[in-house]
Structures
1.
Amino acid sequence: MLSNRLPLFNDSIHVSDKRVIVRVDFNVPAEQNKITDDYRILRTLPLLEQLRSRGARIMLLSHLTEKKEHRSFEPLMENFQQVCGFSIKFAPTPLAARQSKAPVTLLENLRAFPGEENKDPQFAKELALVGDLFINEAFSQSHRSNTSIVELPKLLPSYAGPLFYEEIRKLGEASSPEKPFLLILGGVKFATKIGVLEHFMEVADSIFIGGALANTFLVASGFSVGESPVEQDAVPHVRNAFIGKPNVMLPSDVRVEGNEVRSVSDIRTGDVIYDLGPVSSAALAEKLQEMRMILWNGPLGFVERGYNQATSELIDLLAHSKARVIIGGGDTLALIRKQGLEDSFYYLSTGGGAMLEFLAKGTLPGIDALLETRNSM
Ligand code: 3PG
């Protein structure tokens, strides 16, 4: 098993007075310098607490996704410290991190340095000088072949952190699932879902397609979706590979503006689909009762605009289902937390894109890098 081959960080590794680089995924949403979803940070705290209690000096590395303007960790530092419950020093450069004597230091957004995404060997050396050993606790970023993910394990003794390891073990279970097995895919971007769909086509007893992804499938089935976004380039492939397959379920009704319900055969020229309709939700609810394992990625509606009825109802149903339920993806996880149900599932993955790529390929660049590391301390 893959997880058994990973060098897992453990109690026998000497860390007292050592500088331990921990690659975390603190790529969290924030508004006006307030973190609006701290779930990923909370999931890394057990490792950070363990390192602190064992006398390590922690060097945190993370990226923050660039939107329009450059995003820095600096204005978020106060909030990070509140969430973590200990003080963290901000270091604007790798050199400043190297000179820091603080128990916990966080380097500036890695994407502020061109060398992170270019896999620049010089930048890798600068990062490696910050610590004595490396722990990857950023499963959700390990689908990116970035310097901090794939180059550091070549330069330092390197380990998988406990969260990283748990993600691989639990998602590995879903990869060859207990049957009957249901896959629910929503959200957008067919390109990020195709690998998972292909992997599970032969394996899943049922595959339910929702969210904006379903628009492309409905068009491929010959329905009109009005003004709803469609990935036209993907339509021929979807038609050939997935339409008419007995295990693929599509919505039979949807909600458009103002929450009006329409059958998929009655979508009008100006309509935009925002959510799944009640008949489709009921069909999905019935289907999931037969299942022993369920894997879900991507919301069923446009949740950022408040169209979360179908997604929230599904969360509620799955929370009370007897099946082993594994869920990933930021928007769905945020709703689960809002509903106070984060402890009601078999596993919640911190990965969005990383979860999908791992399920499709069975590995990630960050996993391969750890498998190739040669540890000697
Ligand atoms: C995520 O939020 O899924 C990860 O942090 C990856 O972020 P990225 O898509 O900007 O690499």
2.
Amino acid sequence: MCGIVGYIGKREALPILIKGLERLEYRGYDSAGVALMGRGKIFVYKKKGKVAALKKFIKSKDKKSLAGGIGIAHTRWATHGEPSDRNAHPLLSNSENIAVIHNGIIENYLPLKKILIEKGYKFKSDTDTEVLANLIEDVKKNTKVSIDEAVRLALQQVVGAYAIAVLSKDDKETIIIAKAGSPVVIGVGKGEHFIASDATPLVEYTDKVIYLDDYEMAIIKRGKLTVKTIQNEIKNPYVQKLEIKIDELEKGGFAHFMLKEIYEQPKSIRDSMRGRINVEGGSVKLGGIEKYQNKLVNAKRILILACGTSLHAGMEAKYFFEELAKVPVLVEYASEFRYRSPVVFENDLVLVISQSGETADTLAALKLAKEKGTTIFGICNVIGASIPRATDAGIYTHAGPEIGVASSKAFTAQITVLLLIALYLASSQGTLNKKEMVKILSELENIPKKVEKALLTNATVIKIAKKFKNAKDFIYLGRGYGYPLALEGALKLKEISYIHAEGYPAGEMKHGPIALVDSNMPVVFVADKGGSYEKVISNMMEVKARKGVIIAIINEGDESAKKIADYVIEIPKTLEFMMPLVASVPLQLLAYHIALLRGCNIDKPRNLAKSVTVE
Ligand code: M6R
């Protein structure tokens, strides 16, 4: 949450900062601002609203104040203080000598603020960040040290999560950044450095990046970089090669990133299994977890921790791990797990799932599980993010950058990789023999084609979306593998169209939700011909008897379901545990088209951000 950008070098900083903010806007978009190092002062411009509002605002400003090769910028997702001009970042210290941008939460900002107020500091915003700006100023004033030293000492007083970038008039040739719990990446160019919350704004300038670790800071001068810990230990930074390509960050002719990402699923699923399956040999090869194979095979239980859509992928995985590998699986919201006293055994295996690899609750749950001595595997999409760096081993989903806030291709890529782990385990343990593995892997190899076919439902989905765009509520129902999909379908609709939607196990409907059903209630069924098909059909009849309107995702040519449902979306049949890979598509498209017809901001839904780096 919140996007940080910085530049120091020979080029003009402002265009780089603005472009970087646009790339990072999916992380937060309630206000944006820049601080540019001028000859005599730091020029700060900030505005409530999206980056576009900031761009418009600075157009009228004195060109000289916008020039120069050093600057920092921020796009905000509000935590402390409502979205407004005054709470937007950068925040200046009282003397206006120091500008700070910040991603995260400074938990002890209130006691720090109290002390600073007693010392005479005045505050113009409600933010925790302004407290940090003044704290740095106060440390500097009292200790007479350099600005980087003042930042380092000030951070020792701070409790909480942060990624910060600091400019100071006292050292006009330096940007200081630091990190604890929130991400920050440095792009290394020739005589220049780029700073960003994630690698997406850096791709067009360099393919060399440095990821700071927690409690590290970097002092960046033109062409020179020093990395040290907050405890003052000098570090030798590891420069990595960035694999993202620039066209992956563009919409490529689609109206929205979400639509592009929905359509990318045949490729992202294929990429996520590429080089990992040997169909003829009936085997799965997972290099990322090879060294820990024993931990997986000997695990008495698998514990899956995740949030949001990633949790729904984990719920699908529970079903196929238990079906194929016969190992018990517990799936838990990371945000719950971390705040209770979970019982975790050393011979459990923990699987954390996260698209961004930065979700604060998932990261905290991972750390808690680690303290209990278990082995942790990660399934992540963003290479080098905090979660994969904190796990023992893991497998990347190769979905490519997912920019739309509503997750789509990451979900199906996660299911693909989870399925590979389940198959790897099942064949290692002998719960599946070679013949069965060959059959399953042949079907898996075929899945991208079935997903392509599912994408052809788009025209049907648009017609349905037109009928229901004004509905006030939706119910999504499914059984077995259809149940987590019902949750995911409802989540997609809620987050991008703002229509209230409930996902429920279809069998639970009679225990309460059926009371909601009347002629105004659209009920979406996942009604593929899986093991619970007959039961789902009975549930459809129950809804029909109460005049509910049924939209059913069915297998191609299922005439019985067609007779019951009011609207059908036909998808190709596959093995039951692979059905979510195919059935996700119409659910995503339905949410997308309803949101589009309602005029919603699909890629940047209100109140949301792509990486939830606050608790
Ligand atoms: O990056 P993560 O997978 O850890 O993110 C978890 C959730 O925040 C995320 O899936 C969220 O629910 C999405 N907006 C859903 O579309």
